[in-house]
Protein: ComF family protein
Amino acid sequence: MKLLKTYLSDFFALIFPEVCAACDGTLLSGEQILCTDCRYNLPYTNFHLQPDNIVARQFWGKINIKGAYALFYFTKGGKVQQMVHRLKYDGIQKVGVLTGTIAGEQLSNNNIFKTVDYIIPVPLHKSKLRKRGFNQSTCFANGLSVKLNAPVEEHNLIRTVATETQTKKSRFSRFRNMQQVFAVADPDKLQGKHILLVDDIVTTGSTLEACGVELLKIPGVKLSIVTIAYAE
Structure:
């Protein structure tokens, strides 16, 4: 029976080969989601080695954070953009989990990030969540959780307003668009905790800043930020 399952698996792999989420190359035996070449040669930022990296600097003077990090650099038409599209629009949630696991491996020995108590994904509005069926930031958070040994707190930070897309807005317009969009359902649970706020892409940081403003209203909260990628 086991041999039959192996033959069937090989047959379907031949007819419908799995492809790399970053480059569309056919995955070889033992490869999952990413091919070996992409796994090691994607544009990693190594921001975990740079406390004053460009993502952290975006929040200086705006919100008080302990640390900030992005796993990859994001460029239009690049492999990271393809990975994020596979996650968000093709529904391949394993892409988010894998990137979270990779990020968690990098951060697990970092003195700031290894003290995280809860991982909170930037929430989708319930209408968008219903349409998409999942939150891509939660997938990323689930991967991080495995390596950082911190639980994902998915339903405490909520998005109360369905905002317009941020893609073509200026930094000021983005910030205004995100004002009074988020709320915390159970602040008592988060008192005195180190919270890791996570999202897929950081550009101007307006969405993360708006979330951070609400979370930092809770007494004793310490805040750090992690994303899959940083886009200039």
